[in-house]
Amino acid sequence: MAEVKVTASNFETEVLKADIPVIVDFWASWCGPCRMLAPVLEEIANEYDGRVKVCKINVDEEPELANRYNISAIPTVYVFKNGQMVRRSMGYKKKEEILALVF
Predict the structure, then answer these.
(1) pLDDT at 2 over 90
(2) Less CB within 10 Å around the terminal CB: N or C of the chain?
(3) Does the 4-96 domain belong in CATH 2.40.160.10?
């Protein structure tokens, strides 16, 4: 499954009501570490299709979501399970580190 672009209008459906764990990447196009993390998350989205959903939230386009989740630095990755945020990580992380947040 490709990564899912999340906005305020589809956040509840895509993240909170998902039936599998969701990795939410808060990012921006001008952020160097965000661009480094992007291929890692894309790889996870493809390899774990059906077991993990990867969602991306552009903080410049969705400031209300960034504020709701107190995003103070990017990239910030949240992991949601059963509608609840269970883990959080800030900054660039390797694939294994991201997967360790989920499993």
Answers:
(1) no
(2) C
(3) no
